[in-house]
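Onboarding guide, step 5: your first structure request.
Type a short instruction followed by the sequence, for example:

Predict the 3D structure of this protein.
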Amino acid sequence: MNLQFLKSSAWPLVRIVASLATIWITSGCNRNPRLFSGLLSAVIVSIITFVHLEPLFEKVDIDLSEIALYFLALFGAGVGTALGVLVPKLAPGACLGATFSILLCSLGSPGFFAITPTFALVGALIPMKWKGTSPAINASASVLIGGAIAACLVYTPLFFYLTQVIVVSSNVFISTDATSSFTVQPIMGIIWLIAAIAV
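The system replies with structure tokens like these:
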């Protein structure tokens, strides 16, 4: 009974509180750019690690394999944090470019993911060329990524949709069961944008 109560009532409440905390933390992105650079990189690297390793662990019929997957995602977050803190001018722009391409994929064609490296490179080079743009880049990346986290915490199907978008978009030129059965749901991207506006 207590476990059922936690699952039905307490856990959704925890997710909502965590979502509000994400919005509050994100609002101070330009107060400590180096810290937020590390946090943004941690989120991007951990989700990409999780999404691309998950199919490999699904083939292993061992209960502990899922735990190992989460540990590897945490290690990926650690690597992302180190990179973000090390290069605080480059990392937010790269994160912004990668996140923007994922947003385009969630709203339209998965083929947009093919130009993710270009988006990330352009995003990383803009603050180097025009140094005054760093606060705007930090704020934009924080808004998009913070909005995604907040929306996924409140509406969990969005998380599974975005992970599927990344998997399908990465294999857009390869015919697999995942790519053939995938259908774009623009409403999910709109939910993400609404959350980003709230941030």
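Each response can be followed by summary notes, for example: The chain has a mean pLDDT of 79.
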